[in-house]
Amino acid sequence: MKYLLLAAAALPLIAAGPAPDPVELRTSIAALVAFGTRHTLSSATDPARGIGAARTWGAGRFAAISRACGNCLIVERPSQRFDGPRAPDGVMVEDVIAIQRGTNDPNRVIIIQGHIDSRVSDVMNATADAPGANDDASGSALVLEAARILSKERFPATIVYALLSGEEQGLWGGKLLADLATQRGWQIAGVLNNDIVGNTHGQGGDHVANRVRVFSESLSAAADLPAAKTMRQIGAEDDGPSRALAKLVRRVGTPNAAALEVVTVHRPDRFGRGGDQTPFLEAGYPAVRFSEAVENYDRQHQDLRTEGDTRFGDTIDGVDFPYLAKVTALNLAVARELATAPAAPTGVTIAGALKADTTVAWSPVPAAAGYRIRYRRADKPDWTDHRDVPAGSTTLVLKNINIDDTFFGVSSLAAGGAESVVTFAGAAPRR
User: Which residues fall within 8 angstroms of residue 268, CB to CB, at 6 or more apart?
Assistant: First the structure.
């Protein structure tokens, strides 16, 4: 067991593969911009312009990537009809997904996604040019680059690469995929939603190329009242599934923080805005949103025009491709960690009221090579200490660590050191 402990300490990250290529990212965004508009209500049948042509191109890119890896991807185009205020006559929404099936634990799934649709000032204008270079061709290009690189590797868990439609009309592509995950019984380890991830010049003139924001909810949107009360009683407000996923993103990104700092924002999204992580949160799945550190609102949801010295519109010259490559690399590292690590432990509890010691217990994870018991003082946001135990263990007594002053959690370890999301430990206090 000493070897496992040393390996886990020395390998906080899975060994990185090839770096994302800014040229590949530019090529993908240029191709998407060339479809003129990708509005969800634009033509689904025109071979050169509109959402249908863009989705077909995306499916073709996935197919080519699959051929290069020996047909390792299953490409699907699930669809469903939606209607709402932004599509009063209804519209057929279609996602384009590529499934890289896991080797040992294929029902455990990591999703890397971005939305392929675009819009201008009038959300109902389906004919005007809407290049959507940053919102969200940047996220779509990231997804394709992730598929190109990660498809050359093999993982115990499944990775799903997803190009979603209907985001601007009502987060419908996310709803379609979240429903599909439920129908297929996928055990979602994490959803990485990438939306507006390529710009580094902010509205106020600041230039930030070394930070990315990761938004996460605290209390699960799907939690019922008893679950919410339990979280309150055990102090788990900052350690729900999505917040724990965000903390994993920050941990994975920490060794490269000088190049790209991960700023975990403790809310589901920006004020007055939404993203395709939301339908997954509403379905009870852990999900986070990646967004650039500073936004330029003149280049989002705008008609192409110039007013005085100000240019409006989401054009490709507003994308910083080296920055987008760094955000892509972070997504790759997180996906590798999640897809290589075992499932997170369940049934994690603590005991020790009116005692000097605390006992942490958890249910065994079949593929775990060991477990990491993490703990921190109860006024701290991040885990500060840990103890590692071998695979056969399901309890650990922490001597002279008081249950009232400390938060606890348990993660699963792979033999090479990959670590799952931390499952917060606790039981409702007795009255």
Answer: 215, 216, 217, 221, 242, 277, 278, 281, 289
Alpha-carbon span 212 to 25, nearest angstrom: 17
Contact 332, 205 (CB under 8 A): no
Q: Name the 3-class secondary structure at 149.
A: helix
Q: What is the DSSP string of 363-378?
A: ---TT-SEEEEEEEET
Q: Please answer whether residues 133 and 198 qualify as being in contact, where contact means their C-beta atoms are separated by less than 8 angstroms.
A: yes
Place of tokens 């102090």: 235
State how far the Cα of 265 lies from the Cα of 157, in Å rounded to an integer: 27
Residue 344: DSSP 8-state: P
Q: How far apart are CA 164 and CA 79, in angstroms?
A: 10
- With 0.90 as the threshold, say if the pTM is over it: yes
Range 383-390 average pLDDT: 98
| Distance, CA of 429 to CA of 431 (rounded, Å) | 6
Query: Residues of the chain with pLDDT > 90: what percent?
Result: 92
The answer to whether the beta carbons of residues 93 and 79 sit under 8 Å apart is yes
Buried (b) or exposed (e) across 353-392, using 16+ Cβ within 10 A?
A: eeeeebebbbeebebbbbbbbbbbeeeeeebeebebbebe
Is pLDDT of 5 > 90? no
Q: Which residues pair with 306 in a beta bridge?
A: 311
Residue 14's pLDDT band, with cuts at 50, 70 and 90, is very low
Query: Can you list the positions of beta strands (E) in 266-338?
Result: 287-292, 305-307, 310-312
Give the separation between CA 380 and CA 406, rounded to whole angstroms.
9
Number of continuous H segments (helices) and E segments (strands) in the chain: 10, 19
Backbone angles phi, psi at 64, to 5 degrees: -65, -40
Average pLDDT, the chain: 94
Q: Which residues contact 187 (CB under 8 A, 6 or more apart)?
A: 107, 108, 109, 343
CA-atom Rg of the chain in angstroms? 22
